[in-house]
């Protein structure tokens, strides 16, 4: 089994940034041949890495440091009035954690979400192979949170369980139910699940100040940011 000392890392050539126009990005990733167990995955996440399928990566741009890893402190979190409204609005949902797998039901929801909300992104057009490589492959204590309304799947959140928290990988939901704020609700659910498991953090991936689509992450406090190798509490906007 690999460990932090034996891991080999690679860097991609510069490529167009997915989040900021007119910028180039470079990504560092772990050698795909490495055997990553839950302990090592947890260590990598604490160092700012993320998982996409079987790949573990983090931004490694020479002149740009806009991508900031963030995580939520679970025990100190207190939802504001707006977040409490989101939670109350979705109390009619049935939520269940199930093992990560492919199903046509999951894919149909994912495809609608990508086609209607992210047709301008690099995940368009969706495909079954993409769904599997992104959300099913490389599972390590990985789960799907099913969100159902009267038995119908309306939301699906991919979640990894780490030694020190939950990692929110991705959330997809029914585009016609945008008013429910199901992406935000999925985070609130994960906070409660982390509390139940006595885990201190929910990792929310990267935050980019200039990226409007990531603004929702700053609604959660206290939010910690990884800067210069140290996790520090961010000041509320």
Radius of gyration: 17 Å
Largest sheet: 8 strands, mixed
CA-based shape: globular
Mean pLDDT: 95
Tell me the strand order in the biggest sheet. 8-9-10-11-12-7-13-14
What's the oligomerization state? single chain
Low-confidence stretches: none
Describe the 3D structure:
The protein is α+β, with helices and mostly antiparallel strands. It contains five helices and 14 strands. The chain has helices spanning 38-46, 81-89, 104-117, 128-136, 182-196, and strands at 9-11, 15-16, 24-25, 27-30, 50-52, 55-59, 68-73, 94-99, 142-149, 152-162, 165-173, 201-207, 223-227, 230-233. The strands form three sheets. An eight-stranded mixed sheet has the order 8-9-10-11-12-7-13-14. A four-stranded antiparallel sheet has the order 1-4-6-5. The longest helix is centred in the last third of the chain and has 15 residues, at 182-196. The protein is globular and about 50 Å long.
What are the SSEs and their pairings?
Layout: E1 9-11, E2 15-16, E3 24-25, E4 27-30, H1 38-46, E5 50-52, E6 55-59, E7 68-73, H2 81-89, E8 94-99, H3 104-117, H4 128-136, E9 142-149, E10 152-162, E11 165-173, H5 182-196, E12 201-207, E13 223-227, E14 230-233
Parallel strand pairs: 11-12
Antiparallel strand pairs: 1-4, 2-3, 4-6, 5-6, 7-12, 7-13, 8-9, 9-10, 10-11, 13-14
């Amino acid at each position: 089994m690999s460990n932090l000392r034996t891991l080999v890392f690679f860097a991609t050539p510069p490529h167009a940034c997915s989040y900021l126009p007119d910028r180039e990005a470079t990504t560092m990733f772990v050698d795909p041949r490495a055997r990553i167990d839950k302990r090592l995955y947890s260590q990598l996440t604490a160092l700012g890495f993320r998982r996409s399928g079987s790949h573990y990566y983090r931004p490694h741009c020479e002149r740009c440091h806009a991508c900031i890893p963030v995580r939520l402190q679970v025990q100190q979190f207190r939802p504001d009035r707006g977040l409490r409204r989101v939670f109350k609005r979705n109390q009619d949902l049935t939520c269940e954690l199930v093992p990560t797998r492919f199903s046509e039901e999951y894919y149909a929801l994912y495809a609608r979400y990508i086609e209607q909300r992210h047709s301008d992104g690099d995940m368009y057009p969706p495909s079954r192979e993409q769904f599997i490589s992104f959300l099913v492959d490389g599972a390590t204590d990985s789960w799907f949170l099913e969100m159902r309304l009267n038995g119908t799947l309306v939301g699906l959140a991919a979640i990894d369980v780490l030694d020190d928290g939950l990692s929110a990988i991705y959330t997809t939901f029914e585009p016609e139910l945008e008013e429910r704020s199901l992406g935000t609700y999925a985070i609130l659910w994960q906070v409660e699940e982390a509390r139940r498991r006595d885990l201190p953090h929910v990792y929310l991936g990267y935050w980019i100040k200039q990226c409007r689509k990531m603004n929702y992450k700053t609604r959660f406090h206290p939010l910690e940011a990884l800067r210069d190798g140290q996790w520090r509490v961010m000041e509320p906007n």
